[in-house]
Amino acid sequence: RWIENSILKAKFVLRGFWISGILAYKVASVVRLSCNGDCKDPGRENEKKLAHLWRLEGTKERLRLVKADLMEEGSFDDAIFGCHGVFHSASPVLKTSSDPKARAWFSSSSAAVRVRPDGDFTSNVPLDESSWSSVELWVTLQIWYPMSKILAEEAGWDFCKENGIDMVTVLPSFVIGPCLPPELCSTASDVLGLLKGETEKFKWHGRMGYVHIDDVALCHILVYEHESAHGRYICSSTVTNNTELGSLLSTRYPSLPIPTKFEQLGRPHYYELNISKMESLGSRVQV
């Protein structure tokens, strides 16, 4: 399913970019194309965690790892030198640079779009990039990860506006697909639990958009390659509820104990996601 567009690959490799948090799930798939990346300590302590990256085709020739710490000012100078852009996949937002780059890309989440009070949903109108989730509602639900995504993205927009930085954000929904790092992230772990018959994590998910990891990586590349890209971009495919998801998976994998009934926490919100802006750049996510 990976990208077959050799022209896009070549252009991407020649221009070069830097990406933070290179051990992360989504980041590993973007690294399949050439980049400079940072790791807090690329030495012996993280040798095993980095091994999957070096096994990818071409990384030994194209990937350069630099020791850098998000909390240490100045540690990114060498990492970013010579790059045309920055993918920032972690927080906090960096301070003002005397040598600004062409553009910054921020990996946010559809969680920053889709959670609203009951009265805020317009019937039959898919949510687009103009929608923002309610921080107050996330606080009430005591779910902190999506709230951190909202606050970090808002802070990023404020910071870039104040400092004249061109920023684009990608907002993936629930990411599925092969996990390149040796250790499962929480998302992949939730999916594995579902395939084993567990429902605890998914009862919190309710209605959710899903997207393949390769499509997420491609979306990041497209907003990089298109100079016209601006603002936020929702990256998603099918939006479905737990019951539909369980039924779909159990039909496809009948030998697995996949549940088809889930406890419903709170009132379910029916929504769809408008991905036309992402599609305008050439993205064709697979359902």
Automatic annotation (TrEMBL):
Annotated keywords: NADP, Oxidoreductase
Gene3D superfamilies given in the database record: NAD(P)-binding Rossmann-like Domain (3.40.50.720)
Record bears the keyword Zinc-finger: no
Keyword hit for Oxidoreductase: yes
SUPFAM superfamilies (UniProt xref): NAD(P)-binding Rossmann-fold domains
Coiled coil spans: none
Highest rank taxon of the organism: Eukaryota
A Pfam family recorded for this sequence: Epimerase
GO molecular function: oxidoreductase activity, acting on the CH-OH group of donors, NAD or NADP as acceptor
Residue ranges of domain NAD-dependent epimerase/dehydratase in the record: 144-229
Classification via PANTHER family: NAD DEPENDENT EPIMERASE/DEHYDRATASE (PTHR10366), TETRAKETIDE ALPHA-PYRONE REDUCTASE 1 (PTHR10366:SF821)
Name this protein carries in UniProt: NAD-dependent epimerase/dehydratase domain-containing protein
